[in-house]
Amino acid sequence: MPIGSPSPLVRPAGSGRAGAAAVTHQGRPRDARRWRAERLAPYVLVAPAVLIIVVLRLWPLVLGVNFSFTGDGELNGTPVGLSNYLELAADPLFRISLRNVGLLVLLLPVAVAIPGLLATFIYLRVPGHRVYRSVYFFPAVLSPVIVGAIFNLMLGYDGPLNALLGTVGVGPVDWLGDPGLAMFTVVGVHIWATFGMALVVFLAGFSTLDASLLDAARVDGASLRQTIWHVIIPSLTRTIQFVFVTTMIGMLTSMFGLLFVMTSGGPEGSTYLPEFYIWHQQGQMNQPALASAASTVLFVVMLVVGLLQITLLRRAGRQD
């Protein structure tokens, strides 16, 4: 080893703990900045969507609720307290619309069960399942106005459906003119026209289903009903919750086109829904404050029904 060269056993000055401390001290600010950037990144990415929701959804909702406590006509802009809500409570048309909301809630399990069963049959690959998938989804691409016009022709008093019933000895049925039957008819048409989207959601949920569970059920000799009740439904709890909520929202907010074309709220106001009532007060009666009050009531009803559905479905899933 040449004279004057440092020994390998001799550590240079600044090495050891002091050097490690210097490296650590220099690295900490960089790590802290990186940690803060990683923490802030999700909020930065979500901020535009939150801003859009606040500006286009929440802020108009707050304005609408505030407007519902003002008057119409000569009292435009004047605070009137709960007068609009008391007027709604006394209006028989609005009470009919709320009664029809209860009817929709009762028919909701049927609206969810139909696409669920059809999606089950398609997932189990019944013969022709590829064709059925396209046929079932096709009504979802049609406009509600077109669907309403088609069924007006089919369900007319002298229409083809009554003519077909006449061949088996059943008298003509006034599908759209009977106050006790018209709402069921419109809801049935709505279910036919919209269940294609729920079918797609169910098929997406089936993609997460563990196929080994179905194989085990088949080996154990489970029937189709037992397989659906004990295997498929517990495995698709979240999908079913989503379909329940979205289907209910669609029934309460997307039936205006059908109602307008098929019944225009009749006969005798029997097919009124809050959505149609809001349009009638705003567009026909020129009472925007009263329409805002009805919109607020509709929002509260949707919120309560949705929360109740989620709570009941979660409890049912825990019990299973």
Automatic annotation (TrEMBL):
Chloroplast found in the keyword field: no
Spans traversing the lipid bilayer: 40-59, 101-124, 136-157, 181-204, 242-262, 289-313
Keyword Lyase attributed: no
Entry's localization field: Cell membrane
Entry keyword set: Cell membrane, Membrane, Transmembrane, Transmembrane helix, Transport
Record region (Disordered): 1-30
Protein name listed in UniProt: Sugar ABC transporter permease
Record InterPro entries: ABC_transporter_permease, MetI-like, MetI-like_sf
Main location, first listed in the record: membrane
One Pfam family from the record: BPD_transp_1
Gene3D superfamilies tied to this protein: MetI-like
